[in-house]
Amino acid sequence: MGCRLELNPEHIFECFFEVEAPSEESKEPKIVRRFPEDYKDEVVDKELPKFCFPCDLSRFNPAGQFFTFVLIGLDNKQRFGFCRHPPGAKTCLCILSHLPWFEICYKMLNSLAEFKYAQQSSAGSKLLTQLYNLDVPLPGQVLRLTVSEKGSKTEFSFQCPDPRALPRIPENRNITEFFSAVDGNNMMLLFVSLLYERRVLITSEKLSRLTACVHGAASLLFPLFWQHIYIPVMPAHLIDYTCAPMPFLVGVHSSFMPRVRSNPIDEVVILNADTNEIENPFNDVATLPQDVVKSLKNNLKNTDKITQDGVHLAKSFLKTMVCLIGGYKHALKLREGGPICFSQESFLESRPPHMKECLERLLQMQHFTQFIDNRVDTMNAGDFVDDAFENEVSLSGDVYKEHLAGSSKLKDVFDSTKGNTKKGIQFLQTKAKEVKQHAKEIKVPDVNPEAMKQYWLQTKDLAKDGISDIKKKMTNKSRDTDDSSLDTRSLSNIHALTPPSHVVSSSAPASPNSSPQFERTAFNKIAVRQRPVTEANGKSKYQTVLKDDKEVITEELTTSRPRSGALDGSDAEMISKRTSASEKSRQYKVINLDETGQEADTISDDFRPESTHIDLVGDVTKALEDMGIRDMSIRGVNSGLV
Amino acid sequence: MAGTNINGVVRSTSVTGEFYDFACKVMLIGDSGVGKTCLLVRFKDGAFLSGSFISTVGIDFRNKIVDVEGTKVKLQIWDTAGQERFRSVTHAYYRDAHALLLLFDVTNRHSFENIRAWVSEIHEYAKDDVVVMLLGNKCDMTSERCVKREEAEKLAKDNKIPYMETSAKSGLNVDLAFVAVAKDLQMKKTRRPNDPKFSVLEYVDQQKQVPSKCC
Questions:
Q1: Cα(B39)–Cα(B35) distance, integer angstroms
Q2: At A121, is the pLDDT very low, low, confident or very high (cuts 50, 70, 90)?
Q3: What is this enzyme's EC (chain B) (predicted)?
């Protein structure tokens, strides 16, 4: 998912090395032991020793050190070099692995060092052999290994980390060390610098603190992943890379800082992790939405909570990311007969105006582009992403709405567009009447409360979709868009009015060809309820989560190619929708009648509610009441404008 | 960095003690496998790098000082691996480059076809005054060539950028490519209003060698 990890490594570790410090005879550090012994990699042989001794460890090693360097392969995947070098030691132990298992590898290194100092090198080899031959365990799996040597048994156990879990204090070493070295404000400055893909340099006199801060800082960007140069600790021969004209995130031992500063470096954000001082030539925080900044600041100020609730720190940044980019789904589009794609314009339009500057910049960033590309690819491949970010998006509900509620400025905007909104409501009411007419046409046999509830929920969807559609159409109209290939409907608008099967007569036509009355209706999309989901029908495409007061509904949309003969060759999308909360699945057929122009004409040009998000449930309730549908007590229904 | 004032320009000393008048950042871009690293090694060390060269941190750079009519221009040439994993490369990538050498492989049609995308991205994201040059590399491999020189010249002309064919193996036009960049950058930096305008396009046309058809 845009991360640069090898997703299915063959082994827990690739190779173990013991590297000897440079001595008077040999100026270069050299590998003196390796496991597996037949491991051959010319580049690793040449470069790895320099990373194990990135600075003169005989002079700068105030305490026992664990640090982790990163090597990048030709495939751009990261390999981690976990190192253990206690003060005064002549050798550095290093595990090279594709897995970001910091704590486990440090623990392994400790065990290996114990064996080494107890002169039980064969026990060390036994442990390495066992670990090497294991299949990579599943997340959460606990592994216990026993090494017997000369009658004594040593147990080595660990729990395989869950890559989906947020980094926790104090279990996660990187983020814990980062938090103890850097205060909230500087953490935020660093985060924003990374968000805007600046050149960022962290320096420390302790290698453990140095690499922990680099890895820790990068992890706060989640769900984004740093795509540029990433060198958590720069060995002497790479120091001039700090002149790079492209973005980087690097760690430099403090002994090299004079050399760095003598180089023609471009503008670089420099954090001294020892003194918690930051040199920042930019004022990037000012371009971030100030409500987002304020809430992040408040979260970071609460150090008690950070130490008590282990994930509070990671979550504070995750919440910030949710506020900034959680709405990306509003900008996903379905091309006519084509794959899902992301519309930058819709993304900017669908977010509050005070976020525009920040989001415009984010759209220019590699990590965000990569994030979107990966999300869209995943959906188009029939899969969906289920991670801490998506969970947080669903828990926070409509971020946009939160912003509206929280910002008084926006309230003004909202108030000023209220008049226009009324027009939208009128439009919806007209539509609702048509729904009524339509419902008559399809003959409602018997109405039961459960069916009405379903009907209601779907009508509510329609209301939202209606507003979205109107908004879209008006925007397009005023823009004279030439992007004709782009279906202007947001993907989230696809699930339109869908009378449940209880309501629709059982003879509801399966093919739109046999339902002329559907074609006549003014709705440009009609969803016909089909049978409960059949897995074979199309691949799952898209997961969105609606928050309906307390009830969280997870939807999974399914699209497939139009069926033959559907609507004289015009597109027909099969959309299936699954309510996971109730484990019920429904499937819809959406027919695009594309009467956009006609509908747009029915609303005056000044109706442009794009700067607000409005919950029209209350008004739709009224519209439904007008239709004779009354007295519905449904959980999670908001009334009035939010 | 020691700065001494000689003839109006600040002359600096690099870490290695060499004098130069100003430093420029040049970036090599293009699809993977077009010979970016080989071109860099040929220019810097005058040698052809055979076999694959892997940078351990995904980036490589070389410094070389080029003398342009008495002005010492330090070219800092950057070569990053893995750009190809991006569907599009955003501006952060080129943000601070003074010159971009855009490479394709004349024996790889696909790498040539991607040039249009690279060019449009450069136009969209790079600095306005960035120096861009199109290089058709591996022109020594005559029998495997599948991009005609005329096609590439037309593409370059349409985009108003100079084009030349290079061979990291034989060294053809490699020095010229970098010298032309240095010259263009130096002219942009030091040209006085009344000085004749320097056209890198003309310069390249005059200087470049056309690869012989039989080799």
A1: 6
A2: confident
A3: 3.6.5.2
Task: Decide: helix, strand or coil at residue B186.
Answer: helix
Minimal CA–CA distance to A35: which of A96, A117, A114?
A96
Q: Cα–chain-centroid distance for residue B144? A: 24
**pLDDT cut 90: percent of chain A above it:** 49
Pairing of strands A200-204, A248-253: parallel
**pLDDT tens, position by position, B72-131:** 999 999 988 777 778 788 878 887 899 999 999 999 999 999 999 889 888 887 778 899
Peptide bond preceding A223: is omega within 30 degrees of 0, i.e. cis? yes
- Using the CB atoms, write b or e for B95-116: b if 16+ within 10 Å: bbbbbbbbbbbbbbeebbebbe
pLDDT digits (tens, 9 = 90+) for A499-515: 333 333 333 333 333 33
Matching residue, tokens 């309501």:
A503
Which chain B residue has the Cα nearest residue A373?
B87
CA distance B197 to chain A (A): 28
The count of other CB atoms within 10 Å of the CB of residue A199 is 26
Interface test with A, best of B12, B49, B52, B57 (most A CBs within 10 A): B57
Q: Give percent of chain A above pLDDT 70.
A: 61
**Among residues A408, A385, A259, which one has the least CA distance to residue A329?**
A385
With beta carbons under 8 A apart, name residues in chain A contacting B124.
none
How far is it, in rounded angstroms, from Cα B137 to Cα B131? 18
For the whole model, what pTM was predicted?
Answer: 0.71
Cα–Cα distance, A453 to A236 (Å, whole number):
68
Give the whole-angstrom CA distance, residue B82 versus residue A76: 6
Q: Considering only CA atoms, which of A462, A392, A409 is closest in space to residue A616? A: A462
Record: contact B56-A241, CB cut-off 8 A: no
Which of B50, B83, B87, B90 is the best residue to mutate to test the A interface, defined by the most A CB atoms within 10 Å of its own CB?
A: B90
* A394 closest CA partner among A540, A577, A555: A555
Question: What is the per-residue pLDDT across A161-170, written as a single tens digit (0 to 9) for each?
Answer: 998 899 999 9
Tokens of A266: 């471009």
The encoded tokens of residue B63 equal: 């410094």
What is the residue whose two structure tokens read 């202007």? A488
Nearest to B56 among A71, A244, A264 (CB): A71
Q: State residue A332 phi and psi, 5-degree precision.
A: -85, 135
* Short-list A527, A523, A526, CA closest to A602: A523
- The answer to whether B127 and B57 have CB atoms below 8 angstroms apart is no
Helix (H) or strand (E) holding B136: strand B131-137
Q: Which of B56, B87, B101 to mutate to test the interface with A (most CBs of A within 10 A)?
A: B56
Chain A residues contacting B, CB < 8 Å? 43-44, 47, 51, 70-76, 197, 227-231, 238, 240-241, 243-247, 259, 262-264, 266, 364-366, 369-370, 373
